[in-house]
Amino acid sequence: MLHHSALNHNLTELQYGEVAGAISSAGLTKSDFDWQAVESYATEVGPGSPPFTVPCLVHRPTGYSFLFDLKDGRHFAVYRPGREGPTARDFSGSWELQFGYLRQWLDLVKANHEAPNFWRALDEQDRDLLALPASEQPDDTPFTPEERALVAEQLEGLREQIAAQFDVQGVRLDKLDETIEELNRATGRVGKRDWPHIVRSHLIGLVIDQVIPQGAFYAGLAYLSATIGHLLGVHGMRELPGPGFSGD
Question: Which run of H or of E encompasses 109?
């Protein structure tokens, strides 16, 4: 924790405690964070005056930071990553709103911190669950209307089983539905060779966006391999890490 003498603006002992609790609640490790005194973004000082300093929480593994700033004497949040870009700046006005932005930021830190670990966990065998070796790749022939109907049926089954087994609800379920619909549309514009790449890309995106857990990614590919793998020339199942479900 920073000494009060090191800052022009500081948090109270209670507020520091609330920040520590939010870090734990987000599933992050408190020892991965450092407190620093940095120059304010929002409070200007006159020429020749020393900078106005405020506390900044830094997540060392990623380098992401949250600035507990002030603007006109009221709370102002500056943080990386932002909700929709590299940096966000929000005039919160109150500690309650600033603390709310902090909790959103911690969720973003966790998602971005875990995403590379997920990529490393996907070795080539896992990534190519729905694919064949290059020498055995089929021509990129289009799906027939009958095949598109079968794919649509199995994608609906995939949606239902992921939602039930992994408790996907609310906004997360809406995002899953959007993905299923996009995969359905894709069968009308790409062929059998390229479609599995689109499937993997979209499912990985759902994991990174915390819509589904990693287990649902593996289970989803296993389900599609079992139910429509024959359309893509995939025969048999590979042993998969993590939980799965049958294609029944």
Answer: helix 95-121
- Cβ-contact 66, 19 below 8 angstroms: no
The structure tokens 């048999």 sit at 236
Instruction: Name the maximum alpha-carbon separation found in the chain.
Output: 76
**Residues 6 or more apart in contact with residue 48 via CB below 8 angstroms:** none
List, by residue range, all CATH 3.30.1460 domains of the chain. 4-115
| Cβ-Cβ contacts under 8 Å for 88 (sequence gap 6 or more) | 77, 78, 79, 80, 81, 82, 101, 105
- Is 88 in contact with 76 (CB distance < 8 Å)? no
Q: Does domain 4-115 have CATH number 3.30.1460?
A: yes
pLDDT tens track for 218-227: 888 888 988 9
Rounded Cα distance between 175 and 246, Å, is 23
**pTM higher than 0.90, yes or no?**
no
For residues 223 and 221, what is the distance between their CA atoms, to the nearest angstrom? 5
